[in-house]
Design brief:
Helix content is 11%, strand content 40%. It is mainly beta and 141 residues long. The site of copper (II) ion (CU) has 6 residues, from loops.
């Protein structure tokens, strides 16, 4: 029992001392109101004045919105991801994008698409009976 208290205290101390947080800018969003909350009310790709892009994704059992996305070749894209229900994975093989979609939080990662082709976006966190069908497509051209 004493060991348990010691270990939990060490974890709590390390979390606060090292300021361990979810991997995002600490952006929060109410998971029940995701579909009314900008920018997640209109998920998709947005071009920024500097020529880079932002991609907003909402995950829910068992799909990603948008289901397909077309990205110009060579673009630098920052993905912003949240979930409207349970925890999902957000993984695009052969890129730097590998994160969790957590209800209540917005996670972000950036990747520059320097190879054209079709990329698969998959959920790699078991989220229920339809988990194996949870994917979306990204076309880079
Ligand atoms: Cu899932």
């Amino acid at each position: 029992m004493a060991m348990l208290v010691v270990f939990l205290s060490l974890i709590a101390f390390a979390a606060f001392a090292d300021n361990i947080n979810p991997p995002s800018g600490m952006q929060q969003v109410d998971p029940r109101k995701v579909s009314q909350t900008p920018p997640f009310d209109k998920p998709g790709l947005r071009r920024l004045p500097d020529g880079s892009y932002e991609a907003y994704y909402v995950s829910r059992v068992f799909s990603f919105t948008p289901a397909t996305l077309t990205i110009p070749l060579g673009s630098k894209v920052t993905f912003y991801v949240t979930s409207a229900d349970v925890v999902h994975g957000f993984f695009i093989p052969n890129t730097d994008i590998n994160m969790m979609a957590v209800p209540g939080w917005v996670n972000e990662q950036t990747h520059t698409f320097s190879k054209s082709g079709e990329y698969l976006l998959i959920c790699h966190e078991y989220c229920g009976l339809g988990h194996q069908n949870m994917f979306a497509k990204i076309e880079v051209r």
